[in-house]
Amino acid sequence: MSGTRPAWEEKPTPVGLAGKGAALTVMALVVLIPLWSVLVTSLSSRKTINDAGGMVMVPKGIDASAYVTIFSGGIVTRALWVSTLVTVAGTLVSLTLTVLAAYGLSRPGSVGHRTLLFFFLLTFLIYPGLVPSYLVVTGVGLKDSLWALILPSAISVFNLVVVRGFFQGLPNELLDSARIDGAGEFRILWRIVLPLSRPVVAVVGLFYAVGYWNVWFSALLYIDSNDKFPIQRILQSMILQGQSPSFSGQSVGSLPPTQAIKMAVVVVTVAPIVLIYPFIQRHFVKGVIVGAIKG
Amino acid sequence: MSTEAPVAAGTSDELARPPGPTQPPGKRRRPRMPLRARLRRDWPLLLMTAPAALLLLVFHYLPTLGNVVAFQDYNPYAGDGPLSAFLASEWIGFGNFNTLFSDPAFWDALWNTLTITAFQLVFYFPLPIGLAILLNSVISGKLRAFIQTVVYLPHFFSWVLVVTFFVQMLGGAGLLAQELRQAGVEPPNIMTNPDTFIVLVTAESVWKDAGWGMIVFLAALAMIDPNLYEQSAVDGAGRWRRLWHVTLPGLRPVIVLLLILRLGDALSVGFEQFLLQRDAVGRDAAEVLDTFVYYQSITTGNFGFGAAAGLFKAAVGLVLILVANRVAHMIGERGLISRQ
């Protein structure tokens, strides 16, 4: 963006500048302080946590024993595997089906195009509701299956519309010449369209991945076995319901402080989001999302 | 899924053209290949679309039809599975709706929902607009990018995480309470106080989504012609008058669009957020329509009754969004579903 003030604009007043600076600082700190405090507490020793009174803001040495505990087997490790599995499998399923359907719907004039498009877009206006959805998901036999966290929400029509819009913006001549050379639609999609659509596929994939990592309510509804709980479900029961998790092979006395364990679970739940966030962020400001909004 | 971008405005053009008699002229005159030839040409496209369409059919449209259990005394134990239970259950017409409308707990939940929606329209809705205007006025590109990066982040957190952060910061054993106690002040009850719950949930929504909400307005601000600012400045308009006469009119279509979407969703105030905190705060303050449906159906097995409540909510929501769209047309805006 432009780095200088236009000539016609009046100089900012000191009060205005100070107010603006204060507002921006508050905006940033409101997000950063909780993240910082949770991270530091998770890495603190029992003494540091007790001295601070619960949440630590100023680190005094690093004690990673809470992480050793949650990664050494037990319900948290298990839940992290489940969430990883659901995220990877779910993203693959969602992305594949979304890209295929987006391409299938990208050509006005093809057989059934209008009807199919209407069929997809109508889902924006009509919501099925909790009870019938529950009955259908359990009725098709997905109760206590990890597929219940994936299949019912596998297609985001919004994402589909974004991808479709991108496909439609690709130069037609390219596709036509491939068609003249005798390439089939699957081949065109795989060899020509997808390589040109990496940014949009990346963003949509990351959006799906975040959604799957954050799955909580579907797990509450459909998953009964503890060993299939995703991490959000564990976080909820530990922090919001105050249940202590079980850790294999360690007696309670030798465990790191509960507070550090809890905060470590928060950190491992946040970490994947924070780690992939820069990749999403790189694309979404300019490009995909804004383009979608403009229609 | 909560990670979607805040608006589905990109679809407005398509929604504007349902199949049927509104085809643009000229389209019909185009010579058409016979269906058989078109099928031979297009079958791969249909094949590609089929899996996604099938999923929507099973997990979206089938449940939509399944709303008819609202007219049943649905008994989950009447059969081996939901389908046979459905076939074996008794039809009772509007019985569930009669029970629903005479249930004071339903009216309490509806009242809570509408109060929270109204409160958030006043104290949440304008915030992303203000923040976007503020951020847009920052000249340093680096600073802007930094702030954007930071404030968009919580949008990608789950509600479990958001509530967790609030508990750790503002709860009875949280950072604020701990600092206040050390300063000799008795900390206020924030996380479990029913009287201030409406403020708490709004603060949580602001923390999670107000930053992300800016993205649409920043895009709209970037599309305002800079010459308009220069000309009005030359004509003697100060910064507040430029805000009023250039910036806000430029944002108006987006504001109206988001307002329509919000009004159409007036009966939804965020399901997971309330479900997570209902036990801590109590249902007098935290029961909203969605949690009412959940507790009346899934946890008690009273599915017909819960479906009736859900159907009521969906029907009102559909009416609301169509009315809001009509009003937008009347005041001369393009709205969500534009006419040709």
From TrEMBL, chain A:
Q: Where are the transmembrane segments?
A: 22-43, 87-105, 117-140, 146-167, 260-280
Spell out the Pfam families in the cross-references. Answer: BPD_transp_1
Q: Does the keyword Hydrolase apply?
A: no
Give start and end of each ABC transmembrane type-1 domain: 80-276
- Localization: Cell membrane
* Membrane topology (UniProt): Multi-pass membrane protein
Alphabetized, the UniProt keywords read: Cell membrane, Membrane, Transmembrane, Transmembrane helix, Transport
Identify its protein family.
Belongs to the binding-protein-dependent transport system permease family.
Q: Sorted alphabetically, which PANTHER family does this protein's record hold?
A: ABC TRANSPORTER PERMEASE PROTEIN MG189-RELATED-RELATED, POLYGALACTURONAN_RHAMNOGALACTURONAN TRANSPORT SYSTEM PERMEASE PROTEIN YTCP
- Can you say what this protein is called? Carbohydrate ABC transporter permease
Whose protein is this, by species? Phytohabitans maris
UniProtKB/TrEMBL annotation, chain B:
The segment(s) forming the ABC transmembrane type-1 domain are 110-324
| Keyword set, alphabetical order | Cell membrane, Membrane, Transmembrane, Transmembrane helix, Transport
Which regions span the lipid bilayer?
A: 43-62, 109-135, 156-177, 210-229, 250-271, 303-324
| Organism of this sequence | Phytohabitans maris
CDD domains hit by this protein:
TM_PBP2
The record's annotation in Pfam families points to:
BPD_transp_1 (PF00528)
- The answer to whether the entry has keyword DNA repair is no
Q: What is its main location?
A: membrane
Keyword Metal-binding in record: no
Its lineage opens with:
Bacteria, Bacillati, Actinomycetota, Actinomycetes, Micromonosporales
- Family membership noted in the UniProt record: Belongs to the binding-protein-dependent transport system permease family.
Question: This chain belongs to which protein, by name?
Answer: ABC transporter permease subunit
Region of interest called Disordered, as start-end residue ranges on this chain: 1-33
Q: How does it sit in the membrane?
A: Multi-pass membrane protein
Task: List the subcellular locations.
Answer: Cell membrane
